[in-house]
Design goal:
The complex is a heterodimer of chains A (254) and B (291). Chain A is of the alpha/beta class and 254 residues long. Chain A has one domain: P-loop containing nucleotide triphosphate hydrolases (Rossmann fold, 3-Layer(aba) Sandwich). Helix content of chain A is 35%, strand content 26%. Chain A is globular. Chain B has 291 residues and is mostly helical. Chain B has a single domain, classed as MetI-like fold. Chain B has 12 helices and no strands. At the A-B interface, helix 2, helix 3 and helix 6 of A face helix 7 and helix 8 of B. The structure holds adenosine-5'-triphosphate and magnesium ion. Chain A: InterPro entries: AAA+_ATPase (IPR003593), ABC_transporter-like_ATP-bd (IPR003439), ABC_transporter-like_CS (IPR017871), P-loop_NTPase (IPR027417), PstB-like (IPR005670).
Amino acid sequence: MSKKQIKLEARDINAYYGDFHALKGINVAMEEKTVTAFIGPSGCGKSTFLRIFNRMNDYIDGFKTEGEILLDGENIYAKNVLVDELRKRVGMVFQKPNPFPKSIYENVVYGLKIQGMSNKAALAEAAEKALHQAALWNEVKDNLNKSALALSGGQQQRLCIARALAISPSVLLMDEPASALDPISTAKIEELIHQLKEQYTIVIVTHNMQQAGRVSDTTAFFYMGELVEHAKTKTIFTNPKDKRTEDYITGRFG
Amino acid sequence: MKLSEKIIEGLLWLAATITILVTIGIIWVLLSGSIPFFQKVSIIEFITGTEWTPLFAKKEFGILPLVAGTFLTTAIAIAVALPLGLTIAIYLNEYAPARLKSTIKPVLEVLATIPTVVYGFFALTVVTPFLQGFIPNLAGFNALSAGIVMGIMIIPMISSLSEDAISAVPKSLREAAYGMGSTRLQTAFKVMVPAASSGIIVSVILAISRAVGETMLVAIAAGQQPRFTLNPLVPIETITTYIVQVSLGDVPHGSLEYRTIFAAGLVLFVFTFALNNLSFWIKKKYQEKYD
Ligand SMILES: Nc1ncnc2c1ncn2[C@@H]1O[C@H](COP(=O)(O)OP(=O)(O)OP(=O)(O)O)[C@@H](O)[C@H]1O
Ligand SMILES: [Mg+2]
């Protein structure tokens, strides 16, 4: 197996909500075009850590981060980094589908439009491509002007993925993207993650052990703000090093 | 439990009924006052006439000069209040730290509690002389300064209601916008404001209806000269001002001149009633759109 490039790397990340120490000295590296799953009990800091990678916590009053996050070797917390530019490279899909109250088409082209793209044909082409990538095109191609809010939850989530993909990020962060969806929609999203891995580096938070097993190449187990173990998913599930990991995946605590 | 709930229910019912009765009463007064008026003056003449001189020897009963005056001061007021009010609402929501927000909001709301007569004198004795420095042919009484000061007066109404509307937009939409690489400005204008648009429109309609009904300020600063014009530099008269002028004057009750205020009041009532219903309808239509 050829060694892949390191896409994302966290170095000594500590994070605080006011006095609360939410992330404790985390070091982790993620290879390009792989899927990494974050697992761990509720409140252990998975979402907090995920949102460190696109600086989504910046707006939370009292939140503080120490350490470095390297994206393609460059620290995204360096002084000269423009946060909105960063987020064009690191897309995010949220737990609850959150399409804009606009048409399906306007949702997909939103990111391109705010970047100043106005050519109708180019926008339409980009929208179609993104919707294909998100496996939604066939379902919506005749209704692109319909309100996004009229779609089902699963379709809305795939629309949010299409919206994120339309601006061609290289990293995709997903925080429990299927937890609000039915099993069929969940299967579609998982299938999608498999395909997207060809092009994108994906980090996914999940509570669903089977899902982590199905979609991810490596798995990171978090416990009370610490990264306990990060290894090949197979290893984590069959031969965990740490007792806490073993207890968690065998369901001994939750 | 039964009895106390019955009493409360009864009180609520009473309150609702009184409100409706008062509204009906107002309509009744306006209609019964204006019917005798319209027996003397044709409705067509009333609606299309461009001279309003009921108190002069040569009487003309065209309401348009009063409507124009009302429209002019209202339009100026909204032109001032909408951009400023919306800017404040967006600033408070997207930029201001929580602590600043909780200080600014009540301070703004104080603006709304200043008696309108104070605003009137402010317009007349401060704003008009100030503006005359730039616009030499600005009359002492004019729609411009009355409109501007009225705009300042209704800023809190627009900013506060719009701010409520913007903060009611789910947090997840703001995160979606930021997550796509939007700047704060883009988040505000491309996502938050459109998502809150029905609430913002309602705030503007209520502000218009407030401006249309405003009396004291325009009576003091805009003059009392019905004039069919959209020139903001000259004295004009609004519907409300005219009603006050006649009510406080020595026109004999029951005369045709006296009845004009019922006809004028009816016009005013129709305007504000329509505006309030429009805002109610918009609110209802778009309320459950998100979530
Ligand atoms: N805005 C906030 N202010 C203060 N504390 C917070 C905030 N957000 C999260 N926390 C705390 O930080 C810790 C980590 O939260 P986080 O949301 O990252 O957990 P999580 O692993 O994603 O949990 P879940 O699986 O329930 O989503 C928790 O103890 C939580 O209470
Ligand atoms: Mg979480």
